[in-house]
Each structure stands twice: as C-alpha cells, then as structure tokens.
Specification:
signal; 9% helix; Polygalacturonase-like; 18-stranded parallel sheet; mainly beta; Pectate Lyase C-like; hydrolase; 48% strand
C-alpha cells in the first residue's frame, strides 16, 4: 500500500504544480477585455458571459481567461454546445456577492450546461457561504442555497487545480454527465457548515476523482442514484462525513449505483469513513459492485458503514429499505475508529445485503480511558472474510 501519510503534506506541491497549467497560450478571450473588473466590487457577470459566448462560438479551440484579481459574479450559466474544444482558465479569484440571497435563490452559482470537450483550470472560487449558514442555523426563512460549480448534461470534462471555498451547499456537482475527470482540487468549508458536500455525483458515468484535498461540513464525496463506473483515489478527506454512496431510496423508481471504486485515500477525524446509506422505505434501486481498498482511517467514526436505516431527523416511515446492496468488498482498510463499532453493517430487514467481503482489515478503537476493543456489528448482512480481520468478522 502507498504511503498515504504523504497525501496531505503534498497538497502544496499539487497546487503549485497546477499553476503551470493555467498560463494560456491565447489571451483573446480575457474577461477584462470584455469589461470585467477585478476590484472585488464591480459586477462582472455580463463580461464573463460575453467572453464565454465569443470563445464558444469560435471554430478553433480557444479559452476564456480570468487574470489576477477578484471578480464578483452573480448566478451565471455557460451554455453549450460550443463549436470546438474550450478551456476556462482562472488565475484570479471569483467571488459571490456579499448578500447571500443573490445566489441563494438560485440552484446554481456557476453552471456549465450541455458543454462537451471542456477544461476548467483554476484558480479560486469563493461562494461566501457564512451568511447563508447562519440563516440556516437560525431557523429563519432562508433561500434553498446554490451549488458553487455544476456540470449538467456535459461530456468530456476536465476540472483541474481549482480551489473552492465556502459553498452555500455543494461545492462541485456533476449531474447527467459523462467522461468527467476531477483532479488536484482543494475544497474547504468549515466543519460545522450544513450540507456542504465537497463533490456530488448523480446520474453520471465514467467519472474519475483523484489527487485532491476535501475539507467540508458534510460528505467529502457523495454518490447519488444513477452513478456508474467511478474511480475515486488519492483523496485526503476530513473534516467531513466521509465518502458516501447515497442517500438512496429517495423515491421508488430510482436508478441504481454500480461499479464504484474508492482507493488509496486517507480519512482524518471524519464522522464516517466509507458509507452506503439508504432510507428505510420501498425502492427498486440498488448498489452493487463496489470496491473500497487501501484506505487509512485516522480517528474516524464508523470507518466501515452500511446504514439502510438512515434517518437523521427521526421522522422516517420505519419500513424496510428496498435498495439491494450486493457485491461489496472492503480490502486493506487500516487505522483507528472513534466509535467502538468500527465495522457496522446495518442492512435492510426486507432486502438483506449479500456478497459482502471483508479482507485484511485492521481497525482499533481509540478509547484511552477504558481501552475497550473495537467491535463489528452486523444485521441482515451476508458475506465472507479473508486474511486477518480486526475486529473479528461476523461472517
């Protein structure tokens, strides 16, 4: 197994190296040339759109270039299809308006819609979510909140070197898209910020996420219905809720999740490690062919977790989850758990989990007062184990 202790320490190298990628060969579509001002005050939404439309309509591959400075933009949609390959290169910082309502009433802040052959290099985007989070905590009437950057109905996408800060809700969202690669990104929201997923993927296929540091108030990476053929590797996750498949069973007629690999990653003081979660309600959904391998857990609550009775506010219908969880492998998972149940496989009483494999697991419980051993909890879960499994397998 790789030396995952180096992942976090290498973050400066990752991002300093990515700077080499953001020097454009052509400055023809510099947003400043279209009227944008990097003074941190002037609304530059219209100039950004004009630069995009010019680049998108070009018959030759071209780029939109955001130079040094701080640019304020309101909700904006960059629409395709474009005539040729297009790049969006950010050297400076893009920020949301100070009033959280300006973007909070929209589902999206920065949206790429129906764009193929797109590369986004960054740069920093800052949604300034603090006011929105305060509204959510106060119980007042608040807007629904905006995702920071979204790829919707896109194909052949690269997102590299971006730093996303303080998203109102999700930092990066990938929906109804294919052949997407996310690499060398840095995502940071405070640990107490509500529902600030790092990267959310849904109804998408052939997605790779790698070499990234994600610190959030919710899932570092969440994988929703309709996701398939995903590779997630070399991720530094924490704080946050870990990497989750789900929530599933939001509806009865729900697309399944399959062929997902999470590998070579480190989880530090996260609420969970790798989690599969579904609501306890009927559904024809499924999660199958899932691989979790070469993972390091550092003081993580529930490092290995299947929760098919997910009910965060205790207002669930208390039925059995119809989601079929099968063919799930946990291989070479090591480290420490902050809860005694280091392995918790809480499956549906109506649709038990099948084909679960635990191989070469070594997890200990961090309890310096009582020195209690870590435990494995299984309900309605069936499978097998191989090699040394600590705590002891229930199969």
């Amino acid at each position: 197994m790789a030396n995952f202790n180096t992942i976090l320490s290498l973050q400066l190298f990752i991002f300093s190296s990515s700077i080499l990628l953001i020097i454009p060969s052509c400055l023809a579509y510099n947003v400043v040339s279209f009227g944008a001002r990097g003074d941190g005050r002037t609304d530059s939404t219209a100039p950004f759109l004009r630069a995009w439309m010019a680049a998108c309509s070009s018959a030759k591959p071209n780029n939109v270039y955001v130079p040094r400075g701080t640019y304020v933009i309101r909700p904006v949609t960059f629409t395709g299809p474009c005539r040729s390959r297009i790049e969006f290169r950010i050297v400076g910082t893009v920020v949301a308006p100070a009033d959280y309502n300006v973007i909070g009433g929209s589902s999206f802040w920065i949206l790429f819609y129906k764009v193929s052959r797109l590369s986004v290099y960054g740069g920093t985007i800052d949604a300034k979510g603090h006011g929105f989070w305060s509204c959510r905590r106060s119980g007042h009437s608040c807007p629904p909140g905006a995702r920071s950057i979204t790829f919707l109905w896109c194909d052949n996408v690269l997102l590299s070197g971006l730093k996303s800060l303080n998203s109102q809700i999700m930092n990066v969202a990938i929906d109804y898209s294919s052949h997407v690669r996310v690499q060398n990104v840095r995502i940071r929201s405070p640990s107490g910020s509500p529902n600030t997923d790092g990267i959310h993927v849904e109804n998408s296929r052939d997605v790779t996420i790698k070499d990234s540091i994600i610190q959030t108030g919710d899932d570092c990476i969440s994988i929703g219905p309709g996701s398939m053929n995903m590779l997630i590797q070399k991720i530094g996750c924490g704080p946050g809720h870990g990497i989750s498949i789900g929530s599933l069973a939001n509806s009865y007629n729900e697309a399944g999740v399959q062929n997902i690999t999470v590998a070579n990653s480190v989880f530090t003081k996260t609420q969970n490690g790798v989690r599969i979660k579904s609501w306890a309600r009927p559904s024809d959904g499924y999660a199958k062919n899932l691989m979790f391998r070469n993972l390091v857990m550092r003081n993580v609550g529930f490092p290995i977790l299947i929760d098919q009775n997910y009910c965060p506010e205790d207002n669930c219908p208390h039925q059995g989850s119809g989601v079929k969880v099968s063919e799930v492998t946990y291989k070479n998972v090591k480290g420490t758990s902050s809860t005694q149940q280091a392995i918790k496989l809480d499956c549906s009483n109506t649709t038990p989990c099948t084909g679960i494999k635990l191989q070469d697991i070594k997890l200990s419980f961090v309890d310096y007062r009582l020195r209690r051993p870590a435990l494995t909890y299984c309900r309605n879960a069936h499978g097998r184990h191989g090699g040394t499994v600590i705590p002891k397998s229930c199969f």
